[in-house]
Amino acid sequence: xxxxxxxxxxxxxxxxxxxxxxxxxxxxxxxxxxxxxxxxxxxxxxxxxxxxxxxxxxxxxxxxxxxxxxxxxxxxxxxxxxxxxxxxxxxxxxxxxxxxxxxxxxxxxxxxxxxxxxxxxxxxxxxxxxxxxxxxxxxxxxxxxxxxxxxxxxxxxxxxxxxxxxxxxxxxxxxxxxxxxxxxxxxxxxxxxxxxxxxxxxxxxxxxxxxxxxxxxxxxxxxxxxxxxxxxxxxxxxxxxxxxxxxxxxxxxxxxxxxxxxxxxxxxxxxxxxxxxxxxxxxxxxxxxxxxxxxxxxxxxxxxxxxxxxxxxxxxxxxxxxxxxxxxxxxxxxxxxxxxxxxxxxxxxxxxxxxxxxxxxxxxxxxxxxxxxxxxxxxxxxxxxxxxxxxxxxxxxxxxxxxxxxxxxxxxxxxxxxxxxxxxxxxxxxxxxxxxxxxxxxxxxxxxxxxxxxxxxxxxxxxxxxxxxxxxxxxxxxxxxxxxxxxxxxxxxxxxxxxxxxxxxxxxxxxxxxxxxxx
Amino acid sequence: xxxxxxxxxxxxxxxxxxxxxxxxxxxxxxxxxxxxxxxxxxxxxxxxxxxxxxxxxxxxxxxxxxxxxxxxxxxxxxxxxxxxxxxxxxxxxxxxxxxxxxxxxxxxxxxxxxxxxxxxxxxxxxxxxxxxxxxxxxxxxxxxxxxxxxxxxxxxxxxxxxxxxxxxxxxxxxxxxxxxxxxxxxxxxxxxxxxxxxxxxxxxxxxxxxxxxxxxxxxxxxxxxxxxxxxxxxxxxxxxxxxxxxxxxxxxxxxxxxxxxxxxxxxxxxxxxxxxxxxxxxxxxxxxxxxxxxxxxxxxxxxxxxxxxxxxxxxxxxxxxxxxxxxxxxxxxxxxxxxxxxxxxxxxxxxxxxxxxxxxxxxxxxxxxxxxxxxxxxxxxxxxxxxxxxxxxxxxxxxxxxxxxxxxxxxxxxxxxxxxxxxxxxxxxxxxxxxxxxxxxxxxxxxxxxxxxxxxxxxxxxxxxxxxxxxxxxxxxxxxxxxxxxxxxxxxxxxxxxxxxxxxxxxxxxxxxxxxxxx
Lengths: 519, 519
Prior knowledge:
The structure is a homodimer. By secondary structure, chain A is mainly alpha-helical. Chain A has helices at about 20-45, 55-70, 75-80, 85-105, 105-110, 115-140, 150-160, 165-175, 180-205, 215-245, 255-275, 280-295, 300-335, 340-370, 380-385, 390-405, 405-440, 450-455, 455-460, 475-500, 505-515. The longest helix of chain A has about 30 residues, at about 215-245. Chains A, B: It comes from Canna indica.
């Protein structure tokens, strides 16, 4: 699903020993920055200074060190270790982050909002991409900004529409928002990556004349194919792991290490399986995370449970922090063409407009079929609009576009994306807290997403008040989907949980203990 | 210290998406092999089948899959993911393994045998390298085997003298041997890598005419410089981490994740610091492991202690298993020149002879200065001779030599090393258990190394029976060293432990709890 250009480190060999030493210095610097980020993040959180969330702090540290390295003219052999390699990002940094988000996800709000999430991810991303693309094209025609061909505008629209789960997650989890809003923002940001990547890819093949005139429905079909395939493979791997741990009997006998090794390997297996099949690894590992938490996890011995929860938390926070540092550093190091400030300025405005169109269309569509008590309120729509942060995903695709497009065009897109990432992460990320408070959708503290869920049951439970709305075909379909969600809960309770797990009713206890253990 | 040729993946870009998919398939295969190795290893251990230790099982799995991949003619893009990259090995796989061995090390037997270990590592490795080199040269002159120039013979001698900590550790820990023997074998194998690498490097620069006639003393001096420097930097980083965790107050406040993140980053920091300074990362991270276990560890909160112990155990067993699979696969995939079977056969005999010379000379030297009750007994000498397994370290250096030497020579050396690795790991590794039992140096079960230590105190404690031996200068020096070891224990108890840790007397309790947690 993901498309990459392997930009491996150049294979020149300087005097023996030198290269290894440069690698040492490079990695040393990265570790120091990681340590610094953790310490700064900790200090900021201690003092409840929410205007610079941890993500922004890491990005700023990366930027600063990058600027310093640029000024001091570091050896290229050291610098080589800092280039943002898309491959490294997609294969090693992204999987733990997404798995952890699936693993720590409260499944109920996610599934009860599943229809809305899919609408936002598929239709919304399509709308946002096309609107951005056309606006940028029109801007070029009217000499407001650097002129790009329509196809390239649409490519830019697609890549910039990938709202980034990494950025969004780290900021939302920090603040603790309403559980439904969180589920919407998070779900959209994870699933729309797959859509954005597939859109980008289609446009890219149109641009290189490999295919032409692939229409909208084919596109949606291919997206759905990928999505369903990835979801099934992810769920499948999760179920296999549940059965393995149920019957292998590793929870006795002091086999904690073996148990943990196997448990840790499964998510990565799922990611790579999906990638190997040409599907979306992100979607697959997300569902593996959800299934493994729900079924496999309770088959582990108690000490392994505590370990696994802490392990994934640790790995994902390391990866997350590293992504921001890495991105900041690379932004400072890469050559930019700042000559087109107009392009940057207007594209920021245009993506705001495009996201407004996206959110209002999709929200209205969802509200049309939802009963009155489950409507997406206006303040949630505003929060959704505001929280469309762009991050590592857009950045990685923009780096890709430098290879795909004519030089000046690629550079312009890359610089614009870079600027948008910095602006959204630092400015919007820093003000999201204030914004969410102003909209009164903030939970009470760190664990808000979970606590609001408990106190908020009426809103979540799919209660059906038939007759409150007119019955169009689409509506009936969606209602059926809702009903299948409820019947899924029954199915889960009566068949899946007994089949895939050893215990049955102490789920909630173990959930609590993990949350204590992982913090 | 380490010298490397960056053999990064070639930067060709096939059709977009394809490359990512190939990477997915490659990594997927690797994960499957890891899972298989763990399962096979578990089954073998369950049935107490010690003729195939886990290391051999992994190597064999790697070999088999490699052969299959070779026959089935897999795409090169997938194959690319399996090439043994020395850089990846030295930067990412080796550090966790060595750290874990330092971290899980019982420090007393290691330090009470420190003099002997250093003798074996420096003098012993030098003897073994030179003897092997000259024997191979003589073999060439007498047409017994493929003829190589003397310098290249010495290079081969150096690289093949690196007894591998990875291989040795995994087999010895499994069996549980006498604690002093374990300390000797393990200590030698870790420290002699630094010596072997530095010897190899010197010979390599002589070969390429960069330097000529660097003499023995300069070599030893440079080794000692590297060694002392690496040790100091490792110990220094360890002490800094101890102070940080003592005063940062992270063990309260539910900051387990932050605490663990920082704790996990320190060892890697130490490794990269040493590499960046041109020192030996292996030696540095080993001492960081020892110091962090002894001081930093007790400053952690209890849950973090449990987590950290399990974490390092997990990471190192993953890395260890992966190294063997990786090596087995690469052995099956690389082109070998099997035309020189004579070379392989005789070099196996020669390294046996060289190791016998090495062990008997060093052991006699050590016994000369040790009191009667601390002599290295003949059966330990035999075990030491037998346990000189060659593994990943020799393999990585041999890969290096393919780049450094004329083609036919490099290939011959590489094939011989490969064969030696397979023979020592599979045959000797498989029979080490029987051998150790025959020599009656086996402990009682998994945890022998620790248990024998308790029951064996008289042998370990440096008791001085003055006047049992004549007083040469060397002897006096070494005695002083012994005395400094005892006074180190006092220094530790009275100054270091109170200064670097928060608690003082519950060390032993926490040690126990870790051992329970990590298994």
